[in-house]
Structures are given as structure tokens and as C-alpha cells.
Amino acid sequence: MTAPTAIATARSVSVSFGDRTALDDVTVEVPAGQVVALVGGDGAGKSTLLRAFVGEVGPDSGSISAPTKHEIGFLSAGPGSWAALTVRQNLDLVGGIYGLTGDELVDRREGAIDRAGLRVAADRLASALSGGMRRKLGAAMAMLHRPRLLVLDEPSTGVDPVSRIDLWRMISEAAADGAAVVMSTTYLDEAERAGNLVVLDGGRILTQGSYDEVRTAFTGVITAADVPVRPEWSWRRGRRRHEYWAQGSPDTDAQTVTPDLEDIVIALSMSRRHEEPAS
Ligand SMILES: Nc1ncnc2c1ncn2[C@@H]1O[C@H](COP(=O)(O)OP(=O)(O)OP(=O)(O)O)[C@@H](O)[C@H]1O
Predict the structure, then answer these.
(1) 229 and 156: one domain?
(2) Are residues 143 and 168 in the same domain?
(3) Binding pocket residue ranges, ligand 1, CB within 6 Å
(4) Which of 20, 59, 133, 188 could disulfide-link to 261, CB 3.0 to 4.6 Å?
(5) 271 and 222 in contact (C-beta within 8 Å)?
(6) What is the pTM (predicted TM-score) of this model?
(7) Count of domains in the chain?
(8) Tens of pLDDT, residues 130-173
């Protein structure tokens, strides 16, 4: 099978703000028709990478290749819509910016309203929407002109589980129509469903690939116990604590668990922090 065409690529990208490194030698490809999910804790570099893809942040070294601005749809970490306009007016405004008019604009707008589950709120001001509805409107606005590259900064943060289903359907449909999608998320269950994952921490890529590839590449052993042997290598999962043994061979009789994405992200982030104490 040939590799799908990359619509956007970051090659060895590094970005600093003053003495703070936001991205350190990051290489990521966003293929047509696929969803790449960026995960990682606060300050991992997710927003900076997304802003680099849309041209809002220039790399200090390395390069970005991406379609022209006209072919990109971007939902930033901000509100993503105009508070003083209604749902319909917001969609009309972005449609107009991208040259959509007449019946085509009406069809796309009404289709977007349905897909986003915003029919009941179509004539409501954006400022009067719930946080989740507002996020869905922002995503609908970013994809209205059917961009080749769709860049979404935490589209589902603050969105209730039912609305997250609407949002995820909108994103999957955009990818099925051929868009290359790169998005950040704090919900790891959501990230597991994306075709590709990029796990960032402190501006570095800890691991990337499909969920299967990430699981296969993960080394070491994770155990579960009420009381961990080394608290600094452990974290709470449910009522127990999981503990990471990077070299394998746990020094405990505790039960071994099959790691999920949450375990993998935490274990890899912990390893990095133990290697490189924060300055
Ligand atoms: N405009 C800026 N000026 C100074 N520092 C910045 C700026 N933007 C980002 N940073 C710093 O760069 C690092 C990466 O931030 P970034 O916003 O990309 O992370 P993130 O993974 O999106 O996390 P969060 O979800 O908390 O925004 C952080 O240390 C942040 O403080």
C-alpha cells in the first residue's frame, strides 16, 4: 500500500518563546483523509504546533509545508465565533469570506447546522450558546469551505459527551471527504479513535503512530497496586495506583496490567521528566 499524500508536514520544527522551548525538533505529517490527534498535558506544545501549521507561528528552525490560507480551516483555542452574531450569521460571514454565495451558501450553512445539532439554536446569538454548542459552531465554521487542511485546537474541551459525538462525526466526515485533519485533545479515549496519534511533552514527541503502533512501541511494564513501591513512578487509576517499570522486571508481586493510552502517555512523560528535571 502506498502512503497517503501528506497535505501538511512539520519537519524538525523548533519554536521558542524567549528562553521557553515550545517545540523541539518536531516532525509530523498530516495525510489526506486522516485525523491526527495531538495529545499531551498543559504546555506540551500542542497549540504551538497547530499555530505553526496555520502560519501564525514561524519556526526558529525546521520547516512547515501546508496549503495556502484559503485552503485551511482553523478553530483556535479562543471562542472561534463572533459573540454578537447568531449561529446563521456567523456561518454566513465565514462562508462569504471564502466566496460562498446564494444557494450554495444556504445549503452548506443549513447542512452544517444540522450536522452540528444546532437547529434549535440557529437564530440564537453565539454569546447565548452553551460552551459545547459554541465549540461545535466554531468547528462548523472552520470546515464550511471544505478546506484541504482542517486544524482544530481542542474542539471538544468543555463539550458534553452527547455533543462530543456530534463533533466527532463532523470531524470524521470532513476526513472521509478527503480533508487532512490535525487536532489537539485532552480526551485520550477520543485520541485512541484517531488514525494517528502524536504524544507531546515539553515540546518533544514522545511517541507517534496509530494507536496499535504506539502500544507496540511502548516498552517497560506497568503494574497496579493499592500501595506503589516507588510513589514517584506511580499515578492514580480508579481506586488503585499504576506504577511504571521502564526497564521491565518489576520489583514487586503486584499484578501486571495491559497499558491503555492514558498509562502510556503518563509513563512516557514521567520517564522524560526523570531524565530531564525541569530547569
Ligand atoms: N505566545 C507565547 N509566549 C510565550 N510563551 C508561550 C507562548 N505560546 C506558548 N508559550 C509557551 O510554550 C509552551 C507550549 O505551549 P502550548 O500552548 O503550545 O502548549 P499546549 O500543549 O497547547 O498546552 P495548553 O493546552 O496548556 O495550551 C508553554 O510552555 C507555553 O507557556
Answers:
(1) no
(2) yes
(3) 17, 20, 22, 40, 42-48
(4) 188
(5) no
(6) 0.92
(7) 2
(8) 989 999 999 999 999 999 999 999 999 888 888 899 999 999 99
Closest-CA residue, ligand 1 atom 29, reads: 43
What's the start-to-end Cα distance of the chain, in Å? Answer: 45
ipTM comes to 0.95
| CB-based contacts of 213, cutoff 8 Å, min separation 6 | none
Beta-strand relationship, 149-152 and 180-184: parallel
Q: How far is the CA of 65 from the centre of ligand 1 (A)?
A: 21
- Cα–Cα distances in angstroms (integers) from residue 116 to residues 37, 82, 155, 234, in the given order: 20, 17, 12, 40
| Grid cell locating 212 | 496499535
Q: Is the CA virtual torsion 230, 236, 240, 246 positive or negative?
A: negative
Atom of ligand 1 nearest to the CA of 57: 1
Atom of ligand 1 nearest to the CA of 200: 21
CA distance linking residue 117 with residue 163, whole number of Å: 8
**Is the same domain home to 226 and 185?**
no
Which ligand 1 atom is at minimum distance from the Cα of 184?
22
Per-residue pLDDT reduced to its tens digit, 88-137: 999 999 999 999 999 999 999 999 999 999 999 999 999 999 989 999 99
- The answer to whether residues 65 and 146 belong to one domain is yes
